Structures are given as C-alpha cells and as structure tokens.
Amino acid sequence: MINIALPKGRLGEKAYALFTAAGYGDGRSDIGRRLSFRDEKSGFNYFWVKPSDVAVYVERGAADVGVVGKDVLDEDRPDVYELTDLKIGKCKMCVAARADFKDDFSRPLRVASKFVRSAEQYYSSVGRRITVIKLNGSVELAPILGLSDVIFDIVETGDTLKANGLRVIAQANEISARFIANKAAYKFKRDIISRLVKQLDGVTEND
Ligand code: PRP
After folding, report:
1. Residue 95 above 90 pLDDT?
2. Distance from the alpha carbon of residue 35 to the mean position of ligand 1, in angstroms
C-alpha cells in the first residue's frame, strides 16, 4: 500500500493525470470536497494537501511519496528524496519590478517574496545586499504600493505581472514538479516506489 500526497489545485490534477496514465488511477480526481480517495485497482491512497504542505506530509512519513514544486523544495529544504522531475507545472523564479524601476546601489534592495530563503540565496549569488519582506500572496502589489522595490516570485504565463504593470528584470531558476519520497518508505517499499518512478518517467513529456 502506498500513500500519495498531491498538491490541491491545477498541478495536482495534472499529477493525477500522470499517475492515471502510468496505470495507478482512474483519471477521476473530481471527488467534491473529500480530501482523500483510494484507487481500488492499485490500492493506492491519494490525499489532496496544500501545495506547500506536501513535503511536510512526506518528510514525516504521513505520506510515502508526493508531488511538490521545486520552488517549495528549494525554499523549505525538506529531508526527503527527490526521485524524478515530472516535467509539469513548469515556470520560472524571477525578479520583477515596475517599468520605472532603477536600482539604487547605495542601499539594500527591498525584495518582497513568499520565498525568503530562495530570494536571499539568489541575491547572495549576484552579490547584492537586500532586505526581504516576507509576504504570503498577492506579492505583485508590493512594488505598486511602495512596500518593496522588486518582487521575487514565480512566473508562469506572465499574465499576473502584465496585469499589474510589472516586468521581469532577472531570472533565477527554472521550476517544475518533482516526485519525492519519504526516506524510510523508500527503503522499505523500494520495489514499488522504483517501479512507480519508472512508469511515471515513461509518461512524462520529453523536453
Ligand atoms: C503564482 C505567483 C504569481 C502567479 C504567476 O501565484 O505568485 O502570482 O502564480 O502566474 P502567471 O505568470 O501565469 O500569471 P499562485 O497562483 O500560486 O497564487 P498565490 O499568490 O496564492 O501563491
């Protein structure tokens, strides 16, 4: 038996479609407000959890495996195995600012982000002193209201930036969904998890 934590929302739906294509689901993830369901054929149990919580469930063994964005792994650095790139949920971690932004190197740059650690790491790699302002969402508003100079955030289509009059001024790293496993579960259920990885790799899109 395998317990699988999937991120609630569009990414989770795409991930479940991959599990279905790999032979571990029936493609019907529409289960109303229930947060868990079982695929009778494979005997796998699926759980819908908040995207940023997937790694918590997996790290602590409440789920054996899960699907999580690389952004969350980079930020939270959970003690789990990252087994494969599912090549879905592709986006980029970017720095964005207002069109009239000009960096003032005489003071630390004010960066608004949900990803504090990743922002710090990026700016340390480019040698720029910053002050991070931690936000939990609607980050695009920060430069507009003068709360920050720039934002450090995920860009997928770029529509949110455009709608708020911001533009990308630098790109950090590329993001996609990863298949992760609890370390003990990987040891004790290695055969089935390895098989799952192989089958998922067989149905993921090639670059
Ligand atoms: C992310 C990100 C941007 C948006 C980018 O937010 O923080 O706001 O998606 O997508 P786009 O380039 O396709 O417009 P998310 O939807 O995860 O919501 P959140 O703000 O609640 O985290």
Report:
1. yes
2. 23
